[in-house]
Give the backbone structure.
Amino acid sequence: MDGEVFRRLLRARERLTDSYDDVVLLREAAREAGMSRFHFLRAFSRAFGETPHGYVQRIRLERARDRLARGIPVTEVCFEVGYASLGTFSSLFTKRMGVSPRAWQKTVRRQVAVPSALARLYIPCCFFPGRDGWS
């Protein structure tokens, strides 16, 4: 593949990455690369091993996993990463990850250990003055 064509494809892929949570039409990405839609689709697939649509789906699911690991509710994550339907998001997530978003979140949240520096910050509320009259 020609170096200039590859650079244009990289530019278009960066646009897809930057706007993964928004509707990006194939013709907009193709315009960014300076190609027709059909030529862009073939060149993108050949260069990166997946279609532009597949690439955006993968990026959305990666971002969704990050947000789910932080404890953000599944419905909120669904809309944050650009899906308009919770059913579509859940089905795709389950198909790709092998478990539902909620089940994945529960598993990950159980496996994430609290760093020792943060654990020391926990102070039971009985030690705060004014709670039980010893101010």
In short: The longest helix spans residues 52-69. The mean pLDDT is 86. The chain has two domains: 1-49, 52-113. The helical segments are 3-18, 26-33, 37-48, 52-69, 74-80, 86-97, 101-111, 116-119.
